[in-house]
Amino acid sequence: RKSAAAANIEDQTVEGYEKQVHPKFEIYLDKKGEFRFRLKARNGEPIAASEGYTAKAGCKNGIESVIRNAADSEVVLPEE
């Protein structure tokens, strides 16, 4: 939850993009050419990944939604 609020955005779809420190959101293009994001924790481990978006604006809206809603969300761990 804290990672999302503190995360910078690293847009890997831009040539010569500036690398950000963790925690961070990474915006990238998948094999289908869709925009996706992943959230990486302070230790660099991925903790969230998005669906594919046809437009970068939709991807950025998804990131904003995670930032807004993560602080109030319940953490659910998978059963082993």
Automatic annotation (TrEMBL):
Sections of the chain in a coiled coil: none
Alphabetized Pfam families for the sequence: DUF1508
Record-annotated DUF1508 domain positions: 30-76
InterPro entries in alphabetical order: DUF1508, UPF0339_domain, YegP-like_sf
Domain of life: Bacteria
Protein name: DUF1508 domain-containing protein
Organism: Candidatus Colimorpha enterica
